[in-house]
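Journal club side-thread
Mid-discussion, someone asked how the predicted structure for our own chain would compare to the paper's figures. Pasting it here so we can look after the session.
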Amino acid sequence: MSITGTLIIQMIVFLILVGFTMKYVWPPIAAALDERAKKIADGLAAADKARADLAAADKRVEEELAKSRNQTAQLLADAERRAQAIVEEAKARATEEGAKIVAAAKAEADQQTVKAREALREQVAALAVKGAEQILRKEVNAGVHAELLNRLKTEL
């Protein structure tokens, strides 16, 4: 065999091998590579979508936090206003009660003063009667006694 015959046979075998490879081996490899490229592209798209969703969720979370902070601040302000109103109302009631207690104490003091004066008058009258009795026992002079009784009466 000559070199040319061998070379031609090798070329024919090579072409058969290339044809076999192109028909049976290359399509599954190309399909696997295409599928892998598609999975990678889908994964990148999903990652971009997830990143966008995360940014939107972060934005919503910040908005909700700001809203809850505002509501909390408003509730605290309302509570402080209510507490201040309750304190003012309690002060007003306490002042009113204090005024009532002072008025009652003053009225009671006035009553005690009147009672003390009455008791003092009764004691003075009893002393005056005792004094008159003693005077009458010692001496009976109607003019002097009348004058003494008039002075006692004016003093009372």
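Post-session note: The mean pLDDT is 88.
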